[in-house]
Amino acid sequence: MSVFGGDSWGRVAQHRKRRLEFLVAESVDASSYKKLSNGKYACLVCPQNPVIDSLFMLSAHCKGSRHRTAESRLNEREFDRQEELNKRIFLLGSIGGNANPNSATCSKKFKSPDYKPVSGEALKSAWEILSNKAPMQDSRNKTGDKELSASPATDRTTNCQLSVVGSSFPAAEASEEEVAKRFMDYRERRERELKFTAAGWKRNCHGKWYKDENVEFDSDEADPNVCLF
Amino acid sequence: MYLYSLTLQRPTGIISAINGNFSGGKTQEIVVARGKVLDLLRPDENGKIQTVLSVEIFGVIRSLAQFRLTGAQKDYIVVGSDSGRIVILEYNKEKNVFDKIHQETFGKSGCRRIVPGQYLAIDPKGRACMIGACEKQKLVYVLNRDTAARLTISSPLEAHKSHTIVYSICGVDCGFDNPIFAAIELDYSEADQDSTGLAASEAQKHLTFYELDLGLNHVSRKWSEQVDNGANMLVTVPGGGDGPSGVLVCAENFVIYKNQGHPDVRAVIPRRVDLPAERGVLIVSAAMHKQKSMFFFLLQTEYGDIFKVTLEHDNDRVTELKIKYFDTIPVTSSMCVLKSGFLFAASEFGNHSLYQFKAIGDDDDIESSSATLMETEEGFQPVFFQPRRLKNLVRIDQVESLMPIMDMKVLNLFEEETSQIFTLCGRGPRSSLRILRPGLAISEMAVSELPGVPSAVWTVKKNINDEFDAYIVVSFANATLVLSIGETVEEVNDSGFLDTTPSLAVSLIGDDSLMQVHPNGIRHIREDGRINEWRTPGKRTIVKVGSNRLQVVIALSGGELIYFEVDMTGQLMEVEKHEMSGDIACLDIAPVPEGRQRSRFLAVGSYDNTIRILSLDPDDCMQILSVQSVSSTPESLLFLEVQASIGGEDGADHPASLFLNAGLRTGVLFRTVVDMVTGQLSDSRSRFLGLRAPKLFSIIVRGKRAMLCLSSRPWLGYIHQGHFLLTPLSYETLEYAASFSSDQCAEGVVAVAGEALRVFTIERLGETFNETVIPLRYTPRKFVLQPKRKLLVIIEGDQGAFPAEEREAAKKECFEASGMGENGNGNMEMENGGEDEDRDDPLSDEHYGYPKAESDRWVSCIRVLDPKTSSTTCLLELQDNEAAFSICTVNFHDKEYGTLLAVGTAKGLQFFPKRSLTAGFIHIYRFLEDGKSLELLHKTQVEGVPLALCQFQGRLLAGIGPVLRLYDLGKKRLLRKCENKLFPNTIVSIQTYRDRIFVGDIQESFHYCKYRRDENQLYIFADDCVPRWLTASYHVDFDTMAGADKFGNIYFVRLPQDVSDEIEEDPTGGRIKWEQGKLNGAPNKVEEIVQFHVGDVATCLQKASLIPGGGECMIYGTVMGSLGALLAFTSRDDVDFFSHLEMHMRQEHPPLCGRDHMGYRSAYFPVKDVIDGDLCEQFPTLPLDLQRKIADELDRTPGEILKKLEEIRNKII
């Protein structure tokens, strides 16, 4: 508590407020709203996404009829989606099951003569999209477009169905590696930038690096304008 | 967090010392004040100083004086302390305690400028006592006797004079006329009013006599006269028939005799030849010796030279004052001339010494006299002398002193079982690195190789009345060797012992016959040489033996016990047989009690993890009296009888008791109390001693039974000042031991280890640490560990001294001039700043001090020291008046040098008239030759003194004045990368953890900072709201710092958890950047969680463990040379128990010198969450009824309380 001046109530009040907010926040489902950067809250349930000033208002809003209607509608939709999902999973499972009751590995599954690669693939991606489970894979498909389009070409040359899937898998892996690499690149780059900032370099509004006049540098120190670009 | 504070090593420095006959009779004793501890010392017949009593008084002793009532045989002690009370103590010889005779309150507590306590003066006839403050107040108490010859004290009489500063007071010896006290005073009333400073420059000191009119019961200013403004001390001159009365005024360069109605007699104090002209000579301590026919004074100067001052007088007229060079010893805070011909020198810094007088300086020597004093235009002509070797004194003993501890680290560099404490101690040429190890020091008397690996050793006397042992018997795997003890120790064959078999026990039986137990029988050797042999039945062999002087019990293989007794004729008779359920692991018989025929108890340890007590009484022989189950197999048993004591020299009040000790296979010593009537066992305690099962032996220490436990290291269990102490010995692992007593060594131990037989004695009982001393050259400042090679790098520095080369050159010149050959190895001497006891060296600096230079000259060095070999591998003397102040090792990131050493230095630093310096530097050194030597890489000039350096994220953080700066390593110099100038005063410590930086300011406690790489900025996000003058700091955890301030407090501060979380979860970083505190403070404040007044300035703090596998505690070292620990409690119950015990102790046992305990521990800030272990540990010194009373209040027995105290102590050390 501050000893400078007698305004110690300020922090206590702030604490109390924070504590209350914490308690209120517990009563509201955390996934149903979003805290905005300006400190206000947006309701994610209502289709208009109304912006609300405080947690107290939000809790009041959540009890309102409009919100509750929207919520039940949302739940209904979610339920439908889940049902659809289950249906398709079952369908996918039955395809696999027909192909090989033991259903050991994918490659074996795809070997079966009545297997339709395109529909299988489509089913799989549909399932993925619906289940909303793997955004990473989504993005991978987007970023790895090139590989995917390239792989059928190789298929055609080798004329082997197996290789289609076989190659599509390494392709996916490759794209994953690439993402990781990019991510690493980003990290590395960030690290290198940090090193320069820590060494006393600054950036102007054009992104150019310049030396902080209060900092000393070695005569042969690396210039980030050269190193990083 | 609750802490338990315990002093591990009492203060070793001495503030003041007095001598007298405190116990009555003829014995000369010394009472010394060590800050908060009052000790009674006594030189024993061998000239060794023994501490008879040591009492913590929970206050600050500022002055001591002794007095004796006319015609009495005993001296009383008057103590001036910070309690606002005058206390008169008497030493009680019977109980070995100080009894408080009187305690008179006169003012507020605390060391204040107008509350008396700083000065004490006694009327030489013991009729009155004056207690004075630094300013204004002086009180006189009349001391007298009542009809029952008890000492009485009057109410105080005031001798106040406002606006006066007092420099010194003393009693004036005027026989049995009214008592007179003299004081050097300075009146500042005019200086205070005059803003031009003219009056201040003209202020004059006066010598004032105060007379106590015993008839009117009133004190008056009798006489006042100007004295030199350099006057600093008064010494009483004998009067009333023994001398001329009056006082000696010690002033700068002069000693002046003054008395009322007597012209001044002035003589100049001789100067050392090499003393710069600008320096004066001041007297710092004085002692007077008076015999029937003569008296003389010994005055010591600030350079250590002692002068003998004599007065030529004709009744009351002093005709001549002579000052003759006497000898040179290290500078003292007090000197005591004992009537037995000793001089006790309580050193200002470093070890204290006891000297014996060889002569009293009657030979010719350099002398100055009032008769030959020449005054010329330039002033008085000085007299010069050259210090020489000791001529009149010879040193016979030393008392170790760590004062002052400048820095300390707890490290285990020697890979021993426990860590060692490395302390930088001392000042100037007397400085040293001391390696402290927990345990008693031993001195090895003899080591001799044996023809094989011995398994056991015993010593035996030939007759019960003999003083010394006759034989040492050593058993091997298949033989027994008998050595007779005489002038020399040699093998004998005529002893009667069977030497073709191993032995199981050898002892004296009855009054004068010997017994040897071997696997196949018992051999009883009578005094006349007759031998009786008892053989084991069948093929069974003896496995274990227990015996005392009159009883023997043997255990046969298979578990049969056979009991023998010595009958009236001295024959060994079989009395009883008893079959135990299984094999016997160990057995022991209690010693025969005084005046009895036999001991009643036999203890038998079995492999089924039990110890049984069997009766040896004829009525219920071999009946099991009690059974104790233990955690593992007992391997060795020992009964230890503690005799009843009613205090006395070495012990508190306690009844006789019998302890059974068992060494268990797991290395635990199990100790339990045996009821002396029923044999029931109670109050068991256990303590882990080492990795091997302890073997227990009974030995004699200071005439009392003690226990030696041999585990992976040896331990000694003994009683010291009422406490049972179990302390490790600093010695190697031993196999078997026995007590040893001979002509040369009255109380020793003989032991076997490996193939050698060792004889040693145990020294300095009662001490916690033993020390190894490595001398250093200058006052050590700080040190760091070179982690790879485990070398220590120390920075040392001194003001006002010459560099080594100049000193050496001057010395050579001086020797050549005086014609003395220099036999000492100059280079070595230079290296180590004066080897101790180096008799060949004519003038060791350790003894005589360095030649003095101007005060703006600095000398300093950086030393790399290998602690294993105690050798200095590299020593760099800094040039150009530079001195080192901070040091750290640093690994710069992505640079090729590896670990570098950074040293912060200042050039031409001056403190007077204003703090100024030419420049500050940060030196960067590279380690060469495996870290053994240093090479300067470059040095960077900075604008202030870099008082703190620390590695941080591959860079160097430096605190330069109020600036915290981050440096990177450049090619030619350090590169300034980032700084924060917002610190209030001067940064003295920096500690880092992750991206947090904990900065200690010299006046304003801790500041918590954070470094942000993305912005390259240092932010202060929290600070302390209490202005603490920081002397030591230690980083405890992420949010917590421990610190010590210069007023003697230790405290812990912690950042509140929510603030800490907020700081760490600040993703945008805006908060830390824009948040602002009020009044230039940081936005957040740390909270004080622990506060404790130690009463001594802690200079170093470290979290460490002093026992193997033990919990960590905070260890601190202080200026007065004491070490202490703060242990965190782990259970709430313990906190409750100890806080209640502390509360009761406060009530029932208030501190000796009148300071309120709670007030003392809260002297500057209220004590918070610390329990004073030193007070709790005074519990055993209380009278038994008081112990019981406190125990009842706590719902426990006194034994349980003692056990608790022992347990918690064992957790620390």
From TrEMBL, chain A:
<keyword id="KW-0862">Zinc</keyword>
<protein>
    <recommendedName>
        <fullName>Sodium channel modifier 1</fullName>
    </recommendedName>
</protein>
<dbReference type="GO" id="GO:0016607">
    <property type="term" value="C:nuclear speck"/>
</dbReference>
<feature type="region of interest" description="Disordered">
    <location>
        <begin position="133"/>
        <end position="155"/>
    </location>
</feature>
<keyword id="KW-0539">Nucleus</keyword>
<dbReference type="GO" id="GO:0005681">
    <property type="term" value="C:spliceosomal complex"/>
</dbReference>
<dbReference type="Pfam" id="PF15805">
    <property type="entry name" value="SCNM1_acidic"/>
</dbReference>
<dbReference type="GO" id="GO:0006397">
    <property type="term" value="P:mRNA processing"/>
</dbReference>
<keyword id="KW-0747">Spliceosome</keyword>
<feature type="compositionally biased region" description="Basic and acidic residues">
    <location>
        <begin position="139"/>
        <end position="148"/>
    </location>
</feature>
<dbReference type="InterPro" id="IPR031625">
    <property type="entry name" value="SCNM1_acidic"/>
</dbReference>
<keyword id="KW-0863">Zinc-finger</keyword>
<dbReference type="GO" id="GO:0008380">
    <property type="term" value="P:RNA splicing"/>
</dbReference>
<keyword id="KW-0479">Metal-binding</keyword>
<dbReference type="InterPro" id="IPR031622">
    <property type="entry name" value="Znf-SCNM1"/>
</dbReference>
<dbReference type="GO" id="GO:0008270">
    <property type="term" value="F:zinc ion binding"/>
</dbReference>
<feature type="domain" description="Sodium channel modifier 1 zinc-finger">
    <location>
        <begin position="43"/>
        <end position="68"/>
    </location>
</feature>
<keyword id="KW-0507">mRNA processing</keyword>
<dbReference type="InterPro" id="IPR033570">
    <property type="entry name" value="SCNM1"/>
</dbReference>
<dbReference type="Pfam" id="PF15803">
    <property type="entry name" value="zf-SCNM1"/>
</dbReference>
<keyword id="KW-0508">mRNA splicing</keyword>
<feature type="domain" description="Sodium channel modifier 1 acidic C-terminal">
    <location>
        <begin position="187"/>
        <end position="225"/>
    </location>
</feature>
UniProtKB/TrEMBL annotation, chain B:
<dbReference type="GO" id="GO:0003676">
    <property type="term" value="F:nucleic acid binding"/>
</dbReference>
<dbReference type="Pfam" id="PF03178">
    <property type="entry name" value="CPSF_A"/>
</dbReference>
<feature type="region of interest" description="Disordered">
    <location>
        <begin position="817"/>
        <end position="846"/>
    </location>
</feature>
<feature type="domain" description="RSE1/DDB1/CPSF1 second beta-propeller">
    <location>
        <begin position="442"/>
        <end position="762"/>
    </location>
</feature>
<dbReference type="Pfam" id="PF10433">
    <property type="entry name" value="Beta-prop_RSE1_1st"/>
</dbReference>
<dbReference type="InterPro" id="IPR015943">
    <property type="entry name" value="WD40/YVTN_repeat-like_dom_sf"/>
</dbReference>
<dbReference type="Pfam" id="PF23726">
    <property type="entry name" value="Beta-prop_RSE1_2nd"/>
</dbReference>
<dbReference type="InterPro" id="IPR058543">
    <property type="entry name" value="Beta-prop_RSE1/DDB1/CPSF1_2nd"/>
</dbReference>
<protein>
    <recommendedName>
        <fullName>DNA damage-binding protein 1</fullName>
    </recommendedName>
</protein>
<dbReference type="GO" id="GO:0005634">
    <property type="term" value="C:nucleus"/>
</dbReference>
<dbReference type="InterPro" id="IPR004871">
    <property type="entry name" value="RSE1/DDB1/CPSF1_C"/>
</dbReference>
<feature type="domain" description="RSE1/DDB1/CPSF1 C-terminal">
    <location>
        <begin position="860"/>
        <end position="1179"/>
    </location>
</feature>
<keyword id="KW-0539">Nucleus</keyword>
<dbReference type="InterPro" id="IPR050358">
    <property type="entry name" value="RSE1/DDB1/CFT1"/>
</dbReference>
<dbReference type="InterPro" id="IPR011047">
    <property type="entry name" value="Quinoprotein_ADH-like_sf"/>
</dbReference>
<dbReference type="InterPro" id="IPR036322">
    <property type="entry name" value="WD40_repeat_dom_sf"/>
</dbReference>
<comment type="similarity">
    <text>Belongs to the DDB1 family.</text>
</comment>
<dbReference type="InterPro" id="IPR018846">
    <property type="entry name" value="Beta-prop_RSE1/DDB1/CPSF1_1st"/>
</dbReference>
<feature type="domain" description="RSE1/DDB1/CPSF1 first beta-propeller">
    <location>
        <begin position="14"/>
        <end position="367"/>
    </location>
</feature>
